[in-house]
Amino acid sequence: MISSKRISLALAALVLVVLTGAGSAFAVTTPQFNVTTAVPFVANTGRSEVLGQVTLTADITCAVAADGFCVSTAGTIQVLYVGTPIDNAMATANIGAQNTNGIEVCENIAAVTTCNLVGTYITPAFAATNTTAGGVVSFGVKGGYDFLAGDQVVIRGVRGQIDLGPGNVVGTAIFAQLTTSPSTIAGFSPVQQEVGRSADPLTMAFGAFTILQCRPGIGDGTVTVTEGFNTAFVDQDDAGAAVDPADTQGATLFPRPLFSPRPAARTAKNSRINIVLTGLPTGVTITWPVASDVDSGTGVTLGQLLIVAQSVSGDQVTYVYTVPDQAVGDINGEKFVINVNAALNVALTGTPSDFGVATAQGQMFDAQTATSQPRYNHPLEPVPGTTWLTVAPCTTNLLYPWVLNFANADTGVAISNTSADPYGTVPQTGTCTVNLFPTDKTTNNGVSAGGAVSITTAAIQPGSVWRTSLSGTPAFAGLAGYIIAVCRFQYGHGFAFITDNFPNSPVTAQGYVALIIPDPVILTRRSAAVSADDINFGFAPYGEGLGQ
């Protein structure tokens, strides 16, 4: 009897313990949320990048409604974007005008979705502020709601100033952190999740080209703009749609609030590319193509870059991104090639101001200001700029085989610019670099007296003759040797005149016409061909063919 009684008491105590434990396991009164996020790539130089949405889902322990397991308490929930300021001042969400400028706080409770309005749990009284710790979205919540497992609260459309936070370093994760006030009104697992990862939004590549002044219509350059990640370029106009198709509630974890105000055509709000040329010769004018080639990236998007504006000389140009379907653009990496043709897009003046080298760089645009949409703090890249356009003269290369100013002899030298003629030739103005290679005057055995001595003439105009004498040129006085004059124009011709009895009246004199070296600029080298046919067909069997 005693043993049976003891067993009964023990069983009763065990049942009490189990029931007590069960009660403690299920008597959860504070809502518990599982935190998930979207993790889009964002431009590391962006000032208006949309961060991934944050979704709070009521935990399975909340079970069913009206069971008392997850009953809400009034207060506020804060989402801190750690170290990253936020700025939605220029955006408007897809639900219409409202003072939150693109940020949406939504609840999906009992299959009913409410955004930025009084709901079962959320209140519309929320704010977006910046603190030293980062941007904060804070919203109110009501008490008394008994959560059903799977009920959700969503925070989305927040635009981060990525370049002002840790994300300015490519590849850095950006985090959102959840807190409440009072601190006991909700629990989150985990309390911090990634909402973005920074990346360079574009890569610029420049296909270099050279234009010879005497052949101004020959030469082609390219600018290739490659999207850094699939969603880097955004078309807000999308065939006149009222909203960005990626901003449809429930359709994506990465909605993008549109820029505001919303014009009938929002092309001006699309992603832009700015191209800058440094060192463009003052005589060169580039008229940029109105459009790039159609996208040639990883998929078929039919996107293009369209010209917005350029400077008078063409040393700066802005293109805007456009695509028929932004949703297609978002799943493909896009690449655009801008073709610049010498004949169609480049104008020269035919003067020495044409000559020079321009380097090229590009950046995401618009540059960040208080009102620009979109806005970036994107440096020009690559650094240093890539050599892109070279305008070089077609040259006349004149050889004077023998000049001297010693032993009572002197040499006069003349160069004619005959590009002015009755045949309609394009006139060319240019300087000549006159290089005298000195020979040792103490021997006739062909001994060099050192490196070339050079002077550069003033600009020699078409229809004029430049002339000098060795004795009258301080750098050449007292020397002997040969001259190679490199003249930056075509149709140059030379003459030399040697006299004795210098500096008195000459007794005898001898003149000759300078030889012409085939243009090494056009041939890319000095040719040893002996005839015009040899030059044309690339044969150079011996010697060097010179002549007028």
Q: What does the model show?
A:
The structure is a single chain. This protein folds into 3 domains: 26-199, Immunoglobulin-like, CATH 2.60.40; 208-235 and 270-392, Immunoglobulin-like (Sandwich), CATH 2.60.40; 396-517, TM1070-like (Hypothetical Protein Tm1070, Chain: A), CATH 2.60.290. With 548 residues, it is mostly beta strands. The chain is built from 5 helices and 36 strands. 8% of the residues lie in helices and 39% in strands.
- Which second-level CATH architecture of the largest domain applies? Sandwich
- Alpha-carbon distance between the termini? 138 Å
Give the structural class.
Answer: mainly beta
Instruction: Compute the CA-based radius of gyration.
Output: 39 Å
The main pleated sheet reads as: 6 strands, mixed
Q: Can you give the helix content as a percent range?
A: under 10%
CATH class of the largest domain: Mainly Beta
Counted beta strands: 36
Our estimate of the beta-strand percent is 35-45%
Low-pLDDT parts are: 1-26, 92-99, 239-254, 262-267, 539-544
Instruction: Figure out the total of helices.
Output: 5
The spatial strand order of the largest sheet comes to 8-7-11-4-1-14
Mean pLDDT: 84
Q: Any idea what the shape is?
A: rod-shaped
The CATH topology of the largest domain comes to: Immunoglobulin-like
Total domain modules: 3
